[in-house]
Amino acid sequence: MSQHLDELLEFHWMMDMLQTVDVGIVVLDRDFTVKVWNGFMESHSGLLPSDVRDKSLFSLFPSIKQDWFMKKAKPVFDLKTRAFMTWEQRPYLFKFPNYRPITGSESFMYQNLTLSPLTSATGKVDYISMMIYDMTDVAVGKKQLEALQVTMSEAQEAKNRFS
């Protein structure tokens, strides 16, 4: 096989992996225009890649606070550093419905996000990737544990009052 064919085959399986991984992957340019929208994002948003490609993230999702998000992304573009957002800080960026039957107590998907610079061959960052992780199971578990701790603490206080 030729090297060109090998590279084409490698590109194909890499794109397949990008589409099927259980993590949302979005690539944005400096104008926050969507360039890549993977299968996770498609299945949770109901929007096809062709629906979102070359459109502004903020026009597609007006609930995203533009000033806040741009401030969060600026060091990713300018300093080539990663930025993180956890569900404890902000429950979600994209208000996707919770589709998991086990954690059906929550109506939306809790999310962690990672913004990463995508450096070109020239060393310039014209694009960033956004990875969206479903943290609903973790969030529900933590909330249940906290509720149990409150209940146990209240029970201990009541026991101490009547002892």
Automatic annotation (TrEMBL):
<dbReference type="InterPro" id="IPR013656">
    <property type="entry name" value="PAS_4"/>
</dbReference>
<feature type="domain" description="PAS">
    <location>
        <begin position="12"/>
        <end position="78"/>
    </location>
</feature>
<dbReference type="InterPro" id="IPR000014">
    <property type="entry name" value="PAS"/>
</dbReference>
<protein>
    <recommendedName>
        <fullName>PAS domain-containing protein</fullName>
    </recommendedName>
</protein>
<dbReference type="Pfam" id="PF08448">
    <property type="entry name" value="PAS_4"/>
</dbReference>
<dbReference type="InterPro" id="IPR035965">
    <property type="entry name" value="PAS-like_dom_sf"/>
</dbReference>
